[in-house]
Design brief:
α7 links the parallel β5 (160-164) and β6 (188-192). The protein has 2 domains: 27-119, Rossmann fold, CATH 3.40.50; 140-272, Rossmann fold. It has helices spanning 8-28, 44-59, 75-87, 106-112, 124-131, 140-152, 171-179, 199-203, 254-257, 271-290, and strands at 4-5, 34-40, 63-69, 93-96, 160-164, 188-192, 208-211, 229-232, 236-240, 246-249, 263-264. The chain starts with a strand and ends in a 5-residue tail after the last helix. α1 (8-28) packs parallel to α10 (271-290), α2 crosses α10 (271-290) and α6 (140-152) packs across α10. It has 295 residues and is α/β, with parallel strands linked by helices. The strands form 3 sheets. A 6-stranded parallel β-sheet has the order 1-11-8-7-5-6. It has a 3-stranded parallel β-sheet with strand order 3-2-4, with helices on both faces. Bound molecules: guanine. Guanine is lined by residues 95-98, 120, 140-141, 169, 275.
Length: 295
């Protein structure tokens, strides 16, 4: 059996068209969603993500500003930059790309972002709201995965969901969203990580397996239950394509796992486009909330 391919690219394109239409309606009311992205240092992955986020924002008709600074920026200067966009009325969403250089306290920077502009959903206020099932801003990658799973038609109610990885950006919020008492969730969730004793024993039970391990080939075919839905969050740079672009591989051994799974996301073209799209959706929601509209 060969798995159905879940195209994040197609789902993202669909949602982006809905966003574009809403942006046009808002423009008639004199409202333009605004996003500020802050990129520190030279990490090539971070550069390409932030460039893609800005390009998408502009393409959708958003006001979009990108701040790029060297890795030697002081923590105080970065905090001042965040404050500048907290006060900027044209900006409804602020994103500080992670990771930050070692001399900067990431938690301090995240906490400095106005929670009402925290479209990444990283501020402790929004993380807390997510945990107790209250509206706020939800972290974009897990929110995008929820959308992909919903559209794949997979049953989540009572399903065994195994999340590989426990990061603040993906693993933890993913587990919270899937266990939420809500439609498209209600799952029984297990989180496995680098200290888990027998990872395969857990992953083999998964009806839905979400892999955010940060390492290529973390999940091989023998670790997957036949017919499972496999979501691959990995973006590992494993070489260069013929056109000179970075060659990406997920955390899952795609070629072998697609012969066992019922459905699987590819890399690229799976989770990645959804993360950016959910960021745009959060920024649109923020612009509406700031204008006093229902969102
Ligand atoms: N680094 C990796 N993923 C993300 C993300 O979704 N947002 C931010 N700000 N940094 C990241």
């Amino acid at each position: 059996m060969t798995a159905k391919i879940i195209s994040g690219k197609d789902v993202a394109a669909d949602i982006r068209e809905q966003i574009r239409a809403e942006v046009e309606t808002l423009a008639e009311k004199g409202i333009q969603p605004g996003l500020a992205t802050i990129l520190i240092g030279e990490d090539p992955g971070s550069h390409s993500y932030v460039t893609a986020k800005n390009k998408t924002a502009k393409d959708l008709g958003f006001h979009s500003v990108q701040e790029t600074h060297g890795a030697d920026i002081s923590e105080a200067d970065l905090l001042a930059l965040v404050d500048k966009y907290n006060r900027d009325e044209k900006v409804h969403g602020i994103l500080v790309q992670l990771p930050l250089p070692a001399h900067i306290d990431e938690n301090k920077v995240i906490a400095a972002i106005d929670p009402d502009k925290d479209v990444d959903g990283f501020h402790p206020y929004n993380v807390g709201r997510l945990v107790i099932g209250q509206p706020g801003f939800a972290s974009c990658t897990p929110a995008g995965i929820m959308e992909l799973i919903a559209r794949s038609g997979a049953e989540t109610e009572g399903a065994e969901v195994v999340v590989v990885g426990r990061s603040n950006i993906v693993g933890k919020p993913m587990a919270i969203m899937m266990m939420q008492k809500a439609q498209g969730a209600n799952a029984t969730v297990t989180v496995v990580h680098t200290r888990t004793r027998d990872m395969a024993a857990h992953t083999r039970r998964a009806d839905i397996l979400i892999v955010a391990a940060g390492r290529a080939n973390s999940v091989t075919a023998d670790m997957v239950k036949p017919g499972a839905v496999v979501i691959d969050v990995g973006t590992n740079r494993v070489g260069v394509t013929e056109s000179g672009k970075a060659k990406l591989a997920g955390d899952v051994d795609f070629e072998a796992v697609k012969e066992v799974a019922g459905a699987i996301t590819p890399v690229p073209g799976g989770v990645g486009p959804m993360t950016i799209t959910m960021l745009m959706k959060n920024t649109l929601i923020s612009a509406k909330r700031h204008a006093g509209l229902d969102a």
